[in-house]
Structure formats: C-alpha cells, structure tokens
Write a structure and sequence with these properties.
The complex is a heterodimer of chains A (about 500) and B (about 150). Chain A is of the alpha/beta class. Helix content of chain A is about 40%, strand content about 15%. In chain A, the strands form four sheets. Chain A has an eight-stranded mixed β-sheet, sandwiched between helices. A three-stranded antiparallel β-sheet of chain A has the order 2-3-4, with no helix packed on it. A two-stranded antiparallel sheet of chain A has the order 1-5. Chain B has a domain of about 80 residues: Alpha-Beta Plaits (2-Layer Sandwich), CATH 3.30.70. Chain B has a four-stranded antiparallel β-sheet with strand order 1-2-4-3, with helices on one face. The two termini of chain B are about 40 Å apart.
C-alpha cells in the first residue's frame, strides 16, 4: 500500500471541532484532574479540564490540545485516531492473557508445625500423612500443568509446610522437569517454606535443580514469633538461619521473603522494613491479610480495617523511599507493580490486578487431594467448606473441562472490570483488577459493590498515593520510582540524567 | 462550612434530603451512577416524575454509634453529590461519543487472535472507513456524532 505525507494544511491547526477518543478521569485531592485513556496513558491537568475537553471548548492553539492529540485522547480532521496504533497498545497491555496459565501452585501437604493465627491453609498437625499429595494425584496435576499452552511456566510448591513432604516434592520435580523439556517449555520451580525443616540434603537438591526458595518473614523477632507461633517459640530464629544457609548454598538471588500484615504488624511498619534491610533483602511486599481461611475464624486477633492497612502501607512506603534516598536499593513490590502499569506500555503478571481476572487464566492451584482451584484464596474458601471456585479434580477433569465448567465461566463474567458497575468508568480501571474471589468472600457476591469493597478502597487509595508521589514528589522520589520500573537504583538514575 | 442549595428539601432532623433534578441536564444513568458511589453512607432512591428525576437521600447512620461517633449531616453530603453528578454526566457523554470507536479499538486489538470471522474495518490511512470503501466486517464504526 503506497503512503505519502498529508498536504501542508494537514500539519496546521484544524478549523473543525475535534472528536473524543475513549478516556476516563478522576478528581485528585490537590484539585487537579487526571485523565486516563483506554491504554492507561495519563495526563495530569488543572481542575475542569475534562469538562472543557468534552464540551469541545479547547482550541487548536491551546497547549493542551497537542498533548491530548499526541496521547490519543482526541482526534480531528488532520489526525486520524490511529486506530492501529491504539489497538497495538491495547493488545500489549493484555499480553498477560496470551499463553494462558503460567503459575501452577501445588499444595503438596497440609501438614505444618507452625500455628499461625491467620493461616490461609487450615494446616494439619505434623504427623497426619493422609494430608500429603499422593503420587497419582501429583502425576495428574503435572500433566494438567504441562497441558497449558504457555511456554514459560512456574511451578510453586507450597503447603502447609512443603518441606515436610519433601519426597513428594522430589517426585513432582522428577516428572515435571523432563515433561517440560519434552514440550520445550521453560520451567521455574519455587518452594514456599518457613524453612524450619531445611536440611543440607534439601539445599543440595535445590541447588542441583535450580529451585528457588521463598521464605516467610513477618518482621523482627518479636513480630515474627508472635505472628507465627511454633511449639519451640523460635520461628524467627529458624527462618533467619534458613535464609542464611540457603543464600550460602543457592546464592542470594535464589532466596526471597514474603510477609503478612497482622494487627500487630500494623503498629510497626518501620521496624518491619528495617528488618528486611537488616537481612539484606532488596524487595519487600507490604500486603494485607487475606479475608479467608483461619484469618476469618481468628479475625479478632488478626483482622483490621483497610484504612488501618493503608496507613501502615503509606508509612512503610515513606520509610522505604527514605532508605533508597540514603543509598540502599529496596523495592516495595505492590508499588512497583502499579508503577509498571502506570508508566510502561505493558501489563503485569500479578494475578490480583488483572482484568480479566488472573484467577484460572493465570494461576491454578492443585490441592493435595487433586481438587483444582482458580486461586490460592479459592482453596482457602474451600477449607471453610465453600467450594464455589473448585474448577474440578485432576483425576477426573482434563484442561478443557476445567476451563468450561460453570465455576470458571462465572469467574470470568465477574472478573472483567471493563464491564463492572463502579469500575467501568473509573479512571484507574486500566491499572486495577476485579478479584471476584475477594468479593465473594467479603460480600457474598462475585461482582461486589465497589462502595463497600476493601479491594476497591485499597487500590483507589494506593493508586491515588502513587500518583501523588509521581506528580508532586521531589526529584529523588521520582527517580526512585522510575528506577523501580527500569531496574536501576537511585545513583544510576541520577547518573543517567542530563547534566 | 455547609453550603446552601436551592430547591433541596430537608426533613426536620436534616438526616434526609429530596432533590429534583432536571432530566434535560442530567441523564438517568449519570444520576444512578452517582447514587451508586454514595451507597456506603447514604440510602438513595430515584423516582422519575415528568421532566425531573427525584432523588431521595438519607443517612444510613443517623445517630452516633461506637463505630461512628461523629455523624456528617446530610447537608454536608450534598456538595459531594452534586460534584459527582457533574462528573458522571461527563462520563456518560464521553462513553456515548466514544463507544463505537472503543469497540473498534478492542476488535482490532484482538483480531489477530482469530476469534473474529472477519477483520474489523478501517486501515491506517482510512481508520473510520470514511473514504467510502464498503466493509463487510463484524464491527462498523458510525462517524455520526451522537445527538
């Protein structure tokens, strides 16, 4: 197809009225407005801008006019909507859908020696072997995992405490690795553990098979031990010793830590962040407790309002930014995920912030008994006798049956924030998710009412906060945040700026 | 400071208010969407009476409780409510004007996945199909401005 430049008049201001492209807007606390287009590109503008744009009150010589055209908020006679470009951007944002399920969580046992109040797994005592995953179930679950079209899959082995069923882990790895190689798939393997049963033999095995370890670390000793009680009262000590040994054996990059925020944690954001620095971690994930499993039963000990968590998050994030300013690179993961969605053309693989929701599409959970759930949270609900999100069983359902059952269809229908009441015209819709499992658990309705939703409150407030940092933060804060999405520390960001 | 709004009727205790909204200014979807977001704090009922939408707002919690020791009077909700009405009316107008082009963007974005029987119309040089080339695709874009 031959193409040529438009005539000279095509590059001048249009005398005709412009037309709108899809966008959403939100009033910010500082009285400015945020305009966000269908692909998540944004413009911060003075109050009243959205009304001016919609009422066609902007003239072609207005400085904002060119910006709105360039960022695909409006078009006129001399600028086609460039639909192919917009479509390509849109498709890029949804790349997470391609290949289907990437994360496969195997619950190899429900046994655990810890008795955490908020435990999401409804653990069984250490000697109850009937709660381990049998070989025939493990084998069928590996088959379902390898049936996924995705070329890059992650196998996460968790419990209970998965190291209590290490023979099961070895069996799963022994069939998953050659199976993946046979299908030319890349396979990452992660064990999520409290590290209490870590031995040299286990470490050697992990080293040999390039298995990563994800450890639980809730903060300093007093908080960790209180959150994660163990008969010997030394859960912190064994976790820290395990982390050190794992790093020596596997390398620091193979060992990560994950925290859960309890009512006790809320009072100690600074101490928790400092503990992660003390243990030389460079990432921390400030995440709220899930309203499932024992967390519901023990709500008086662990539960809290989302407002209290947001205060905890903002205090923690401020401290993290200060730590970065002082030269230590520490990334808050949730903020980084949001920044990736706001500042880059790409989506993310983070299940909770996906629409269509990542449940099933991007994660599947294989319980010890072969039941398949759409998310780990779905399985926790099942432990509370709510089997709404049970997609099937690996022994009786193949992949197509798992994805065509009513449970998955219901999830998908309620899992697109593009069409949910309250979400469909929200400016933050391109950055947010839907999470039908959360709304089912908290409101008894997969669709949920956003005005009552802790999920909505958390994300609206957090994205508001991230934008306030991006738009009004000082130069160091902006460099730190940009550094998080470009994998550079503050010094590297400063050095990259023009002198 | 509590603002005064003309044409708003209050109950004696100022725990409820009745608003008459001109349908020529605010559409029903805009009013309903605004009400949706106040559902946590206010009961909202919308009736249609001739040229008006009558919105009845009342406090969900009208007397102090241990959970909510301070009550925000209904008067103080009104400025937020009117702001929301303006915003949602704009959103309705944006959606009305851009619905077709949005459909086309999404159809084009996923056309390569093979789920459409025909590729959607529009090319780089003729994105709206406005040059008169007849397309038989599943999705068509209407260049006519909404009324």
């Amino acid at each position: 197809m031959a193409r040529s430049f438009l005539p000279l008049t095509g590059f001048g201001p249009s005398s005709n009225a412009y037309r709108l492209l899809p966008f959403r807007f939100r009033r910010l606390k500082d009285k400015s407005e945020l305009l966000v287009n269908e692909c998540g590109e944004f413009i911060a503008a003075p109050a009243g801008t959205a009304a001016q744009v919609v009422r066609k009150q902007l003239g072609p010589t207005d400085p904002l006019y060119a910006l709105l055209k360039a960022k695909h908020f409006i078009y006129d006679d001399y600028s086609s909507p460039l639909l192919d470009v917009l479509a390509a951007k849109y498709r890029t944002k949804f790349d997470f859908i391609s290949g289907s399920t990437k994360l496969h969580i195997f619950v190899v046992t429900l046994r655990c020696d810890h008795s955490c109040h908020y435990c999401q797994v409804s653990r069984q005592t250490v000697n109850k072997g009937e709660f381990d995953m049998p070989k025939n179930v493990a084998s069928a679950a590996v088959d379902r995992m390898l049936d996924t079209p995705s070329q890059h899959i992650t196998l996460e082995l968790q419990g209970g405490e998965p190291l209590l069923a290490f023979d099961t882990i070895k069996y799963i790895v022994s069939i998953a690795k050659p199976g993946a190689a046979q299908r030319s798939k890349e396979l990452d393997i992660v064990i999520t553990s409290n590290l209490a049963f870590l031995t040299d033999d286990i470490l050697e095995y992990c080293r040999e098979h390039s298995i990563k370890l994800s450890a639980s670390l809730d903060g300093p000793e007093s908080i960790h031990n209180a959150n994660r009680p163990r008969p010997t009262g030394d859960s912190y000590q064994v976790a820290i010793e395990g982390i050190k040994r794992a790093r020596r054996s596997l390398g620091s990059h193979q060992v990560a830590a994950l925290m859960t925020t309890t009512q006790l944690s809320l009072q100690h954001p600074i101490e928790i962040v400092d503990e992660y620095v003390r243990q030389s971690f460079h990432t921390i994930f400030l995440r709220p407790i899930s309203p499932y499993g024992f967390a519901v039963k023990s709500a008086r000990k662990t539960g809290y309002e989302m407002g209290a968590f947001l205060e905890f998050y903002q205090t923690g994030l401020k401290h993290i930014l200060d730590i970065n300013r002082r030269g230590y690179n520490l990334v808050e993961i949730y903020t980084k995920i949001l920044l990736q969605k706001i500042l880059t053309p790409e989506g993310t693989g983070y299940v909770d912030l996906q629409s269509p929701c990542g449940a099933g599409l991007n994660v599947l959970v294989y319980n010890y008994d072969g039941d398949v759930y759409a998310t780990d949270e779905s399985r926790m609900l099942a432990e509370m006798k709510d089997h709404t999100f049970r997609l099937g069983n690996v022994l009786t359902h193949d992949r197509s049956q798992l994805f065509t059952g009513q449970a998955f269809v219901d999830l998908l229908q309620a899992g697109c924030n593009q069409s949910l009441p309250g979400c469909s015209d929200c400016a933050y819709q391109p950055y947010c998710g839907a999470d039908p499992v959360y709304h089912h658990a908290t409101q008894g309705d997969m669709y949920g009412h956003r005005a009552f939703s802790g999920f909505c409150k958390r994300n609206m407030s957090t994205i508001d906060h991230v934008f306030s940092l991006l738009l009004t933060g000082d130069e160091d804060v902006q460099n730190i945040l940009w550094g998080w999405v470009t994998d550079r520390n503050l010094a590297e960001m400063r050095a990259s700026l023009p002198q | 400071m509590t603002m005064q709004f003309a044409g708003v009727e209050f109950d004696e205790a100022h725990t409820a208010a009745t608003l008459r909204i001109d349908k020529a200014v605010y559409s029903k979807p805009a009013v309903l969407r605004a009400c949706y977001w106040f559902g946590r704090d206010l009961h909202c009922r919308v009736d249609e009476v001739a040229e008006c939408l009558v919105v009845f707002l009342s406090l969900r919690v009208a007397a102090p409780t241990l959970d909510q020791p301070r009550i925000k009077p209904i008067d103080d909700w009104l400025s937020d409510f009117f702001d929301a009405l303006l915003d949602f009316q704009l959103r309705v107008e944006i959606q009305a004007e851009t619905a077709t082009v949005r459909e086309l963007i999404i159809a084009k974005a996923f056309a390569e996945s093979g789920i459409l029987e025909d590729p959607p119309p529009g090319t780089f040089s003729d994105p709206l199909g406005s040059l008169g080339i007849e397309s038989k695709g599943l999705v068509r874009i209407d260049t006519k401005q909404p009324d």
